[in-house]
């Protein structure tokens, strides 16, 4: 009797989960389908057109012709990679010191790290913009990197990982004659690799999705990122949804491919960093 | 007497100190320049008014704050932001909790489901909002088409001030379910299986198990998800910016504090007023977070 109840219950769960899954990917599916339609097809209500009658690449060609997508990819890529490198390198250094070394000012400085994490990021934006502006660095890759040069979140996250490592490791390294720098680089750093991967994924994801900062600081269309360029493209086309959808597909595809390849790292990265906070 | 010893110890201590300072230097210099000074600067700017053509600051004392409390739009924005948070946070957490609990058992295709539910999280909000706008389109949108097939009249999801905030909240919920689900699922997996086995022997139903075992033991994770979701929701900008133009009839009913901050600081170049708005946002977030931390004793169980 028990099994009789169990089988339908499990299939009910699957029905629910499948409905949810469809709702999750339907917008992407619709984005893709619309990007291949003509304007007439996309606005035909009677009959309603679900699938394009033929797979037209015209919308993509038009969007690529009118916007410098290679440039947008490069700007976004450069910003993401530089932010990932900076946040991992600087955060790992500071995190190790906060987790394992004793020095005057440690409590105070770590307090600043915590304080930064509690403040909404918009509060930094005007002064950061004024700094970039006075350096004459607007519309550059550096401007895109600027707010992500260091990461309080990363410092906090990696500190949690370092604190989870056994103290004996360092004592052994010390006996072997390693100084603090060698212990950090050769012994401790390789052991927090999963933390660094999680931080890298987090940083990349949020840098890629950020809209306000690139919109403010890089107003030239050649200096935009994929996100900020989309905001401009929407204003320019407004009604031509097939072309807007083609542009959206082009903008989300790099991160989507990365996600599909590294899905395990993405999800584990989010799960472990959430648990560590 | 122990001069040699004390000097050796102090040299070692000194080495640890200097390593410590050296290692934290880049992060701390960065944080001070990029974050700590800007907080002070934003607070300072909120007492100034940008001169004409954006140049030259005029000290106006508390005028920006006075203006803010008389500004209907600021109150609209506070209301909209809070309403958005009230819609998105409970619904998204409830749905992600359901999905997480369903996935926590011995379900086939678990990792496939997890992968799919997380997808909205990896797409840029700018692109996501564009396709939702298209789905919401009054005349040609898929949603209204489906509704028309079941006999419901077309809804102006984006332009109608009465529904536009709900439409925006739906996008917000849809985007964040996967993220919360992954965090909650990690929390669920920490709960020892023995608890369930023991209560099964006692004859507890699944529903009872959920309320007696799952919820209390998940409460620390749940608390973390609630606090971060509220902070995130209070900072909503991207979706509203991409969906509602300043000229839209729904603008007043959807503009959030951050959107208002953006418009005042960068569109109308009144950085002083923009700063005052963002200080207000900071104050609201601080108060809400403080209340949540105070309130956690009532429902969060740390083992």
UniProtKB/TrEMBL annotation, chain A:
Bilayer topology annotation: Multi-pass membrane protein
Organism of derivation: Paenibacillus auburnensis
Family per record: Belongs to the binding-protein-dependent transport system permease family.
Subcellular location: Cell membrane
Protein name per the record: Diacetylchitobiose uptake system permease protein NgcG
Transmembrane stretches, start-end: 12-33, 72-96, 108-129, 141-162, 183-208, 244-262
InterPro entries reported in the protein's UniProt record: MetI-like, MetI-like_sf
Pfam families: BPD_transp_1
Keywords: Cell membrane, Membrane, Transmembrane, Transmembrane helix, Transport
Keyword Nucleotide-binding (UniProt): no
UniProt keyword Transmembrane present: yes
The ABC transmembrane type-1 domain, residue ranges: 73-262
From TrEMBL, chain B:
Cellular localization per UniProt: Cell membrane
Record domain ABC transmembrane type-1: where: 78-292
Keywords in alphabetical order: Cell membrane, Membrane, Transmembrane, Transmembrane helix, Transport
Sequence intervals crossing the membrane: 21-40, 82-103, 115-135, 165-188, 209-233, 273-293
UniProt xrefs under Gene3D superfamilies: MetI-like
PROSITE patterns xref list: ABC_TM1
InterPro entries the UniProt entry points to: ABC_transporter_permease, MetI-like, MetI-like_sf
Domain of life: Bacteria
Membrane topology per record: Multi-pass membrane protein
Keyword set includes Membrane: yes
Entry annotated with the keyword Ribosomal protein: no
Broad class of the protein's primary localization: membrane
Stored Pfam families: BPD_transp_1 (PF00528)
Entry similarity comment: Belongs to the binding-protein-dependent transport system permease family.
Protein name (database record): Melibiose/raffinose/stachyose import permease protein MelD
